[in-house]
Specification:
The chain has 230 residues and is an alpha/beta fold. It has a 6-stranded parallel β-sheet with strand order 3-2-1-4-5-6, with helices on both faces.
């Protein structure tokens, strides 16, 4: 095993890494006043995720003005509801809110607490500031600091989002360890000089054979054991 990186701050992606984003959206879709089997629900979750990804790509490419995550989730909810033939405004509003009622993975809270007892922990998310408050409260995630890509009016993997974390610590990039279940997120962090740790989750973007991250863990408890080992 490669030696553990010598870092001063651990930075965590939140959506997908710390909380089950697709699962929360799926629960919201199942609450719609429509007859939807599991396959249809899964398909509509995919519709939601594609809309978010496409909108964020358009913003990063300059094809669309900056829009915060709450507004994009509302657009996604409207698109999903239309595909499910649901026109009730209250149902659409509740569906959009489901993107901020996301359950933590079973080891998220305990693993975060173990790491936070040894090192400063920071959340760095594409979710907007108001959304992050509700997401973290629902999931019971406690950070020393939490930052939103909204502060740079962009989205990961734009370098400015990772530089936001670096600037808020006053440290050199290599003193920060970025933790994520998304290989694309870690590539973005690595490009600005941060150290990287991949954490396996049922959702996310697995590494490619060519990826070379500093750490790889089966979950957050596994990562905590690595980072807190004497």
């Amino acid at each position: 095993m490669a030696p553990l990186p010598d870092v001063d701050v651990v930075v965590f992606d939140i959506l997908g890494t710390m909380v089950d984003e697709p699962g929360g959206i799926a629960r919201g879709i199942r609450s719609l006043p429509a007859r939807l089997d599991d396959a249809r629900v899964d398909g509509l979750v995919g519709t939601w995720q594609r809309h978010v990804e496409e909108r964020q790509r358009d913003i990063l490419a300059g094809r669309h003005p900056y829009t915060d995550s709450t507004a994009i989730d509302r657009e996604a909810a409207e698109r999903v509801a239309a595909e499910a033939s649901v026109a009730d405004a209250d149902a659409v509003r509740a569906l959009a809110d489901s993107a901020q009622r996301l359950d933590p993975w079973p080891d998220s809270v305990s693993g975060l607490e173990r790491i936070a007892a040894r090192l400063p922990v920071m959340g760095l998310s594409n979710a907007g500031r108001p959304a992050l408050t509700r997401i973290n409260t629902h999931a019971g995630l406690r950070w020393h600091q939490v930052l939103s890509a909204e502060d740079v009016r962009g989205y990961k993997p734009h370098p400015d989002v990772y530089r936001l974390a670096v600037a808020n610590t006053g440290l050199a990039p290599e003193r920060l360890l970025m933790v994520a279940a998304h290989a694309w997120d870690l590539r973005g962090a690595r490009a600005v000089g941060m150290r990287t740790a991949y954490v396996e989750r049922p959702v996310g973007d697995p590494p490619r054979p060519a990826d070379a991250f500093d750490l790889s863990a089966e979950g957050l408890d596994d990562l905590a054991a690595l980072l807190t080992a004497d």
